[in-house]
Write a structure and sequence with these properties.
Blueprint lengths: L1 E2 L2 E2 H5 L1 H20 L2 H30 L4 H31 L8 H26 L10
Antiparallel strand pairs: 1-2
Length: 144
């Protein structure tokens, strides 16, 4: 799926890729300092990352159904499955935060560990997405 001849999924994934680790860092700073400014910033990063991650997932699914190469298709399912799981996990945090806002609930060490592991999974999924682009040329040039 392209917008102005640019792959839309590839353009959108940069937002959750940047915002989810930023949410983790800001949540950690809020946990350590108690400064609600960090909590507010983490909340906005989280909500934006989930919204754009879901939109990215939709555009990625559209790219997925256009793949003809079976090896690339298998890699795309793993990439999409990992990143969808990550976005769904962060969606739970976003939903709970959304319902409590403007009151901020200080994250626990368990939540921070879960977010850290989810970010590691996201990076793994993104690596696989990079392989789809660079090895299989998915969503770039005319080799969809």
């Amino acid at each position: 799926m392209k917008f102005l001849n640019h792959p839309l999924h590839v353009m959108l994934i940069h937002f959750p890729t940047a915002l989810l680790p930023m949410d983790l860092v800001l949540s950690y700073l809020f946990f350590r300092s108690g400064n609600e400014g960090y909590g507010n910033a983490a909340y906005y990063c989280l909500v934006a990352a989930v919204a754009l991650g879901l939109l990215s997932g939709i555009t990625g699914f559209i790219d997925l159904v256009l793949i003809k190469n079976k090896t690339a298709m298998a890699a795309a399912f793993v990439h999409g499955g990992i990143n969808l799981t990550v976005i769904l996990a962060f969606s739970v945090f976003a939903y709970k935060s959304w319902n409590l806002y403007p009151q901020l609930l200080k994250p626990t060490s368990t939540i921070l560990v879960v977010k850290f592991v989810a970010v590691l999974f996201m990076l793994t999924g993104n690596y696989l997405g990079g392989k789809l682009i660079f090895k299989h040329h998915i969503a770039i040039e005319n080799n969809e």
